[in-house]
Automatic annotation (TrEMBL):
Gene3D superfamilies listed in its UniProt record: Tetratricopeptide repeat domain
Cross-referenced InterPro entries: Sel1-like (IPR006597), TPR-like_helical_dom_sf (IPR011990)
Entry protein name: Sel1 domain-containing protein repeat-containing protein
Pfam families reported for this sequence: Sel1
SUPFAM superfamilies, alphabetized: HCP-like
Length: 209
């Protein structure tokens, strides 16, 4: 294993869950496929969940927030779906659960909250363990995220850096498809320029091979 690939073990440390959680607030539509009454109720669940997350000091409070997000998500509230995917991926507010993270990320992604591709790309790249690795899927979600980010400057720097790192490594190593050294280095450089020092180390290492 190339020493530069140790970045796989440090991605979640480099940009911690609380940063990603706080920055994603404005990414998503509030509602889809709901009546006005359902939307109001789902929005109430979601807002209460957000407030509990912000003030959570114990496990019971965090669990209550999770249940509120789940209630809203079951009513097709997109922000709530993404919060669940995020929470189950990062483990900042409740226990990591890859299956639940994938489920809610797909629910959001399939309803046009396309930024949920970040969590799918990360999980399928091995971010939550080898059992869920699927490099072809990860590569596909990385590409979709990168295309969206080009059109939307509001994406946070952390997620942009991590996705470009995963995609760059996939291209350099041939994970899930053909190798492309030039393009792989380009995406590692983008991640480095966005402040991910491990991406800079990998970029320098691969450039000197």
């Amino acid at each position: 294993m190339k020493k530069y690939r140790y970045i796989l073990l440090t991605l979640i440390v480099a940009f911690n869950a609380s940063f990603l959680f706080s920055q994603s607030e404005f990414y998503y539509k509030d509602r889809v496929d709901m009546t006005d009454a359902q939307a109001a109720k789902a929005s109430d669940y979601y807002k209460k969940g957000v407030e509990l997350v912000k003030s959570a000091s114990d496990g019971n409070t965090k669990e209550e927030a999770r249940l509120l997000f789940e209630n809203a998500a079951k009513m097709k509230h997109l922000k709530a779906m993404v919060k669940l995917a995020e929470g189950y991926t990062m483990g900042e507010h409740w226990k990591i659960d890859a299956d639940q993270a994938i489920y809610w990320a797909k629910q959001a992604f399939d309803r046009e909250a396309l930024q949920a591709s970040y969590y799918l790309a990360y999980i399928y790249f091995g971010g939550l363990g080898e059992a869920h690795i699927d490099y072809k899927k990860s590569r596909n979600y990385c590409m979709q995220f990168i295309e969206m980010e080009k059109k939307d400057p509001t994406f946070d720097l952390g997620s942009v850096a991590v996705v470009n790192t995963m995609y760059g490594l996939a291209l350099l190593e041939g994970y899930g498809g053909k190798k492309n050294r030039e393009l792989g280095l380009k995406h590692l450089k983008i991640a480095c320029d966005h402040g991910l020092k491990e991406a800079c180390q990998s970029y320098n290492g691969y450039s000197n091979e």
